[in-house]
Fold:
Amino acid sequence: MATIKRYPAVRHFRGTPTGYVVHLQRGKVSHQGTGTSFWFRPLPAVISEIPVDDRELPLIVHARTADFQDVTVQATVTYRFSDPAQVSERLDFSIDTDLGTWNGNPLDQVARLLSELAQQHVVDQLAAMPLSAALAGGVGPLRASLAGGLATDARLAQTGISALDVRVVALRPEPEVERALQTPTRERVQTEADKATYERRALAVEQERTISENELQSKIELAVREEQLVAQEGANQRRRAEEAAAADRISAQSDADQVVLRAQAKAEATQAIGEAEAGAEAARMRAVEGVDPAVLAALALTPLAENLPQIGSLTLSPDLLSSALASLAGR
Structure:
């Protein structure tokens, strides 16, 4: 809104860029336009300020379809005062010359006018459509009908109001009817969800079965490999035992062969020694053959004498000497 400063006997008006001002002085236009500033006397002055910016008006319209179903249409109308001078002549946008505020509620009057016109076009459009058609594809035709009706309305044109845009936000039936219409779709969606759940569970069961089969197959493979390992270990142990036994047999055979060889060598050595001794004895026997027995006795005593301990002194008794002499004499 504009700013009015008070001075004794006069006032100063300062407008805004979005406010179109019409200043009448004794019925004649003294000032008009946007963003104006001027001095005026309050008693003979009549000032109107019309906003020229784009304005949006939310609407809620109730209507009935061709099959007697109540629906609610939620829409938004964007409008502006395209001819503010003409608007000032058709609607009361006068402001208080002391406070700078509107004396009435002109925007509420404009809102009522647009709401009634919009409701008329909405009712006419939906009255020729069943509820299913209106809900399925009625938003576009309804928006086009509402925009066209407001754009070509004679009263709005005469007032200086232009409808710039119309947006239909929602078109909804009564809650009970809406729930009834949503039930088939909801049931279908629930059925599809249940089907997806069952398929997911079946897939999970199949995957679990596959995993179990893989685990069982892995266990079987592990058991087969373990059996092969045990068999191989047994074969290795048997082979080691056989190799050890063969080595023991070879060692025992070698020891036996060495014992036999030592025994044979000892026997041969003993035999050779015996044969040598026998030969020596035979030679001795041949050597002493025909020798006097006394000589043989002397020869036999020779080794004995060699092995006797050392005699420090020898005592000959008379008896021993007599016997020796008697023997010698007898011989």
